[in-house]
Amino acid sequence: MERTYRIVISKKMDIEASTVMAMLEAYASFGDLEKMEKIYRTVMRLKPRVYLNDDLIRKVAVVYIENYMFSKLDDMGIRLYSRIGNTNIVWCLRMLSHACLLS
Question: So which domain of life are we looking at (predicted)?
């Protein structure tokens, strides 16, 4: 997966949103924080074309929680708010972030 991604990038080809989403889900499932963050930033640059579903948001949030990166939850909630609006998952992320930071 990574080799194919590097080849596509090196040839200056466009990456499909579904490919980036699959990579993000794989890295979140394996708990690879560094690679997940890199792909997450790529996803955020694909603003109009990508919608993160709730299950994927939860997987990414679990990786942040397991690595004690609670402020990233709040950042993710703010970014998602600007993309999808005021939803339950956005407020849950933000409240969870503040609760974890206070404990």
Answer: Eukaryota
